[in-house]
Fold this protein.
Amino acid sequence: MKLYLDTCSLQRPLDDKSQLRVQLEAEAILAVLNLCINDEISLVSSEVLEFELGKNPHPQRKAYVAEILETAEVFIEVDRHITLRAQELERSGFKGVDALHIACAEAEKVDYFCSCDDRLLKRAHITESITIKIVSPFELVEEITR
């Protein structure tokens, strides 16, 4: 099973856990990352994730995500095909970087793309051209524990 975690989901365990939803999503992501460490799930990284990581001004978050991305079994470089697909996704209403993440995940034919971004999740569920399963951390845990 191949999994792509976007930047917000990768950083969720470091977010303020005063809200129950954030706390539960953080636990879900940590459980999934544990499966990746134990080679039960293959983590996929990308040039887009590294680009966002490079822009992160918080050293602790940056180091945390960099350590996770080092465990990825697959690295996707953005090419012309991915760029064109991202442009299509932008025309469907996705933000630029979100469109690039999804295009990378589609290019690798991941089983699941996970995000904590409600806007991205809502848009993904109504966009028929998406070729991968885009899920929240809760949906991901539900899917992989079946």
In short: The domain at 2-144 is CATH 3.40.50.1010 (Rossmann fold). The first strand starts at residue 2 and ends at 5. The two ends are 13 Å apart (CA to CA). Strands lie at 2-5, 42-46, 74-76, 112-114, 133-135.
